[in-house]
Design a protein that fits this description.
- The protein has 433 residues and is mostly beta strands.
- The protein has 5 domains: 1-28, no CATH class; 31-127, Immunoglobulin-like, CATH 2.60.40.10; 137-220, Sandwich (Immunoglobulin-like); 233-318, Sandwich (Immunoglobulin-like); 328-423, Immunoglobulin-like.
- The chain has one helix at 94-97, and strands spanning 11-13, 16-18, 34-39, 45-47, 51-52, 54-58, 63-70, 73-79, 89-90, 101-110, 115-117, 121-127, 137-142, 149-155, 163-169, 179-185, 190-194, 201-207, 219-220, 233-239, 245-250, 258-265, 272-278, 283-286, 296-304, 309-311, 315-318, 328-335, 344-350, 358-365, 372-378, 383-386, 394-403, 406-407, 414-417.
- The strands form 10 sheets. Strands 4, 7, 8, 10, 11 and 12 form a 6-stranded mixed beta sheet that branches. Strands 22, 23, 25, 26 and 27 form a 5-stranded antiparallel beta sheet that branches.
Length: 433
């Protein structure tokens, strides 16, 4: 075997002199080996199981061993045979590495004890099989109040996603009408989009180095399904205690056959139909007895046509920690007799709750007026005299209960007209809520 010797080499180039060297005869080995690391490369995706590391290493005195470091820790040592570089294989523990990423590098030692480390390869993903991501789900439109943008929102259970493609159609839901609108990073799940003047349609898919997922469902810019039929608009959900939620909405479809009221718990991804209504209905009260106090629920209303359907936006509501049963049997009487000192409207009602902290007396002038609170009474009070009344006016009244900031449903509504004493009109009407 040849011994290393230093041989000075001088290359005159302008005013610079370059010197090269090799090991001298009889000297110690001080030159480290050379190493190059090829695969797996950074940002690669590998299948769980033995994976050979592709690298190159050389030294004029020969290779002694190669060490493998995973995530900075020594993972294995591979001795060389006859000074030749050994084969190195990755054997990754499934419990530790599946659906996660790791980094690695190798360290090469020559027979003289010198060593060189390769560069570190990072963000290498481990999967049980090489396949595209799953399709994103939960695609919906969020429309912030007063904003000029709508927000496209989605969810994804895939771990190995490099990004998302957002596709747009300005025409209809035919596949041929969609075009690639933009791509976003894997960390993006909310995408602001200028609110279009007419209905647009959106779908998304995920991609990685292996391929592309299936498309998500199609959704339109109005927040309904991607179809041409428009789902109900302006859905609101109001809790009235532990086990009662009132829903209200506006119908827009003209060809609906029926409506499906759907609900899911906050911990669930599955929608359940809780009621089937006529296509003309605009409200529903969920008091089926399956709700729990202090829980979060999501609702949507879906209009079903002969060949299509369209859903409203989903809304959430939190049920109350207690119940406030509304007052009932509200009666109003105009009193202007010698037995009373001044004109007044006398109110009385039935108390149906033992939970309230106060009673709110609300009044409005005329059927087109706006209700305002004119008195806050302590609990268990069931009567009130309104002395601030004017001849010739009609007043409407209702009672609400309050506790810890919660306000109950209103009682029945009663109206009373203030007239001359001899022509006093006393009437009340009950409207069941």
């Amino acid at each position: 075997m040849l011994k290393k010797i230093y041989v000075p080499v001088m290359l005159l180039f302008g005013s610079f002199f370059l010197t090269s060297c090799v090991e001298p005869l009889g000297g110690s080995d001080s030159i480290p080996p050379q190493v190059a690391l090829y695969k797996p490369t950074s940002n690669d995706t590998i299948i769980l199981g033995p994976q050979e590391i592709i690298y190159d290493a050389s030294d004029d005195q020969g290779i002694a061993k190669v060490e493998l470091y995973i995530d900075g820790l020594l993972s294995g040592s591979f001795p060389a045979e006859n000074g030749n570089r050994p084969a190195i294989k990755l054997n990754l523990d499934s419990a530790t590495f599946v659906n996660k990423t790791f980094s690695y590098y190798i360290k090469v030692y020559d027979l003289g004890g010198n060593s060189s480390s390769s560069e570190t390869k990072t963000k290498i993903a481990v999967v049980t099989s090489k396949s595209p991501p799953e399709a994103p789900y939960g695609l919906e439109i969020i429309e912030p109040e007063g904003a000029n943008d709508i927000i496209l929102s989605w969810k994804d259970s895939s771990k190995l996603v490099d990004g998302y493609e957002i596709w747009l159609s300005e025409v209809n839901t035919d596949n041929a009408s969609f075009f690639l609108y933009t791509t976003v990073s894997a960390s993006t799940k909310l995408m602001p989009i200028p609110k279009p003047p007419v209905i647009n349609y959106y779908k998304i898919r995920a991609y990685n180095k292996i391929g592309k997922s299936n498309f998500s469902v199609i959704i339109n810019s109005e927040g309904g399904s991607g179809s041409g039929i428009l789902g109900p608009q302006g859905l609101t959900a109001t809790a009235w205690g532990q086990r009662e939620v009132e829903l209200n909405w506006i119908n827009r479809a003209t060809n609906g056959v029926y409506l499906s009221v759907q609900r899911k718990a906050a911990s669930s991804a599955v929608w359940s139909s809780i009621a089937t209504l006529s296509a003309s209905r605009t409200s529903y009260t969920d008091n089926s007895g399956t709700l729990f106090g202090g829980a979060t629920y999501y609702y949507r209303v879906k209009v079903i046509a002969q060949t299509d359907s369209g859903a409203s936006r989903e809304v959430s509501v939190v049920t109350w920690p207690f119940d406030l049963t509304p007052a009932s049997n509200l009666i109003g009487v105009f009193a202007d007799t010698p037995a009373v000192s001044k004109k007044m409207i006398k109110l009385s009602w039935k108390d149906n709750s033992n939970q309230e902290e106060g009673n709110l007396v609300e009044r409005k002038e005329g059927s087109g007026g706006t209700y305002q609170t004119i008195a806050i009474l302590s609990s268990d009070i069931t009567a009130f005299d309104d002395t601030l009344v004017t001849k010739g006016k009609t007043y409407f009244y209702r009672i609400k209960l309050s506790k810890q900031g919660y306000i109950s449903r209103a009682s029945n509504e009663v109206s009373v007209t203030v007239t001359e004493p001899a022509k006093a009109i006393m009437r009340y009407e009950r409207k069941r809520k």
